[in-house]
Amino acid sequence: MDRRSRIVDGLRVRPGTPAHLAGRDTCWSAGGELGALTAPELDTTARELLREGVSALSDAQELLWASDRYALLVVFQAMDAAGKDSAIEHVMSGVNPQGVDVVGFRKPSAEELDHTYLWRIAKAAPERGRIGIFNRSHYEEVIALRVHPEWLDAQKLPAGGRGPAFWAARHEDINAFERHLDRNGTKIVKFFLQVSKDEQHRRFMARLDNPDKQWKFNAADVAERALWDDYQAAYEAALSATSTAWAPWYVVPADQKSVTQALVAAVILEAIQGLDLQWPVVSAADHEANLRARRLLEAEMVG
Hints:
This protein has helices spanning 3-11, 39-67, 84-91, 110-113, 119-124, 144-147, 164-183, 197-209, 220-225, 228-242, 257-273, 284-302; strands spanning 71-78, 100-103, 131-135, 186-194, 249-253. It is α/β, with parallel strands linked by helices. Helix 1 crosses helix 11 (257-273). The longest helix has 29 residues, at 39-67. The relative contact order is 0.20.
């Protein structure tokens, strides 16, 4: 197993085991594969790894597009200010934008509320040959709504309890939905960008201190920050129940953005390369047509 594979493997939540978020580092300086590096060395190394990853991902995406057999769905979940937007921006900076769709799910519309909560998710799943990115996703249904169960009222669900069995059933439904996508050629990788409460505070303050960044700040995020422990418990439950062999979760330390981005790129690249894609093979008839076209082009040069 090479270095990238070892690092990726260490981020994965093993199916059937607790995510154990409290025991995972939000930065990389505590040890492991890159633990011997100083902070500046780590930043430099991460940026180099990101550049390599972006370049390799560009080639991998072209092969994904050309083969037209699989799709890749990338799910991002995190607390506010964890760096989802910047990770998407930097990791996808080298790929062909025609082959990538980024979807951010906001408050459901009236039409969406008249369907099951997975209806709009299924509609947004990527086509074969494409990369789909969910910047927040169906997991809000078992995280944000678990913290705010009163939001369930808008879904007009059948009467019943909203206790542990309700959330376990939603986890079961999500696993089945993702298994269906996987069986039909959509590879799924899911990222939880784990930022510390102190780093979130620092980033909030940095936005407020910079007039050009205040537009990124939402005062409502402070109210959600007060529910930090509730959110952590909801994430722990969701990741533990829904990290599967067909749609694994990766917990990525998010206190250092360059490290976060390099790790995300490594996971996505490994996911595509694991599909064992092949370039399309030209048929004999097309090959003959190409030879005839080549002779015509060569004749133009002679003339």
